[in-house]
Amino acid sequence: MEKELIGYFLPEGLLEHFRITNVEELGEVSKKRMVLQIELEEINSLPKGYDSGLYESKGFYPVTLIQDFPIRGKAVYLAIKRRRRRHKVHRNQVIYNNYSIIADGSRLTQELSAFLKGTGRDLGRYH
User: Fold this and answer.
1) What is the pLDDT of residues 51-75, one digit of tens each?
2) What's the predicted TM-score (pTM) here?
3) What is the domain extent for residue 106?
4) CB neighbour burial string for 72-103, b if at least 16 within 10 angstroms, e if fewer
């Protein structure tokens, strides 16, 4: 239930691509305050137009920690895990989803917006 409620505070469209795996209240010792850390994991789905028989999930990229808007005066950090996918034969061919569409027209922090827009920058990653 807790995870579903937290979803209402996240940017619209984010939970279509990520699932909440954990929510923790942590102490930020240097600032003597409590913060919320919401852990998100990318759903295992290929970008549109790719054959699932040709690509495989190969774990995750390192977690990206992004500060989001505060909730009830508490700082909120999103710990985002994105999947790594590669071609089964051409192992150096790596693909990943483009989430820049979420950043356009949404009310996001600059840091989260830059992260999501950055997922769509490298057009060469598809070839």
Assistant:
1) 889 998 888 989 988 888 788 888 8
2) 0.73
3) 2-126
4) eeebbbbbbbbbebbeeeeeeeebbbbbeebb
